[in-house]
Write a structure and sequence with these properties.
The chain is mainly α. It is 73% helix and 0% strand. It is globular.
């Protein structure tokens, strides 16, 4: 039962909330205990919010999930957890969210509840609208980064915000592509997927991938960045970004793994090493050089 509840609230997907740590890292406060603790609490709070959204989504999608080759094993769709229990879980999560939000400043609270509102509209209405569904997913990642900056009151480069936007658009497009391929194989008639084509989604993914690389490269050589970190060496970390984007596209296009971001990031050894080397490099350059 515990495993089913953890699966219901998508505890493994909390890793997406690590985006709140981006401003902490690039503001040179990573080793500040007070700041790190505040961001960690923000990470947990976003985890509660995202879990509430996932449970709500599963409640509404029960019938569709039962027809999906993978989603039919979700706790609600499979009948392991009842709808009544799911509603109770949502209520508990909402109560925890409200109680925890009192600890933060108003800007973070606005971002947090904007995240919930966008996802609520996405689940009920906006995911049926072509392109807007992808934009909503991207907005969620941007709000995480903004929340991470607001919770510790630090400046976040607009280039990093744009990089986050394009990364999330890229991931959302790849996810849609994988769902579209699967829907063709399974003869799934989900409305929003029927309005997409593989070529169209491929174009969105390619443009977003280019946006990620360009925005990150521009951030690394921006005058403000060089002046703030007193180094031009951040530009060299662009190679990890380029490899990560291209490797992700390879796994999604050639190996058909794009539907599950977590699976790609943490089951592919080259991807794991690339992320590790990037983190070590950026920390070394920012904090020790």
């Amino acid at each position: 039962m515990i495993k089913d509840y953890l699966k219901l609230i998508r505890i493994s997907h909390w890793i997406k909330n690590l985006f709140v740590f981006v401003p902490l890292l690039f503001s040179k406060h990573l080793f500040n205990v007070t700041y790190s603790f505040e961001v960690f609490l923000a990470f947990l709070t976003f985890g509660i919010a995202s879990s509430m959204v996932y449970v709500f989504n599963d409640l509404l999608d029960e019938k569709e999930d039962k027809l999906h080759p993978k989603k039919k094993f979700r706790p609600i769709a499979s009948g392991k957890i009842s709808k009544t229990t799911a509603v109770i879980i949502i209520a508990i999560l909402l109560m925890l969210l409200v109680l925890s939000s009192f600890r933060f400043n108003y800007r973070f609270i606005i971002v947090l509840f904007a995240y919930i509102a966008i996802n609520a509209f996405y689940t009920t209405i906006l995911r049926k609208v072509v392109v807007l569904d992808i934009i909503c997913i991207a907005a969620g990642f941007m709000l995480r980064v903004m929340g991470g900056a607001f919770v510790i009151n630090v400046y976040i480069s607009k280039w990093l915000v744009l990089t986050t936007l394009f990364i999330s658009l890229f991931l959302a497009a790849i996810k849609r592509r994988s769902e579209l391929v699967l829907s063709i194989i399974e003869n799934n008639t989900r409305k929003v997927l029927s309005d997409y084509s593989i070529d169209f989604v491929n174009h969105i993914a390619s443009i977003s991938a280019a946006g990620v690389i360009i925005c990150y490269a521009l951030y690394s050589v921006a005058d403000r960045t060089v002046a703030y970190f007193h180094t031009e060496n951040i530009v060299y970390t662009t190679i990890f970004v380029v490899f990560g984007i291209f490797r992700y596209m390879f796994l999604a296009y050639s190996k058909e793994k794009g539907e599950n971001t977590i699976e790609i990031l943490f089951t592919d050894v080259p991807m794991i090493l690339n992320i590790l080397f990037y983190i070590l490099s950026i920390i070394g350059i920012i904090y020790f050089l």
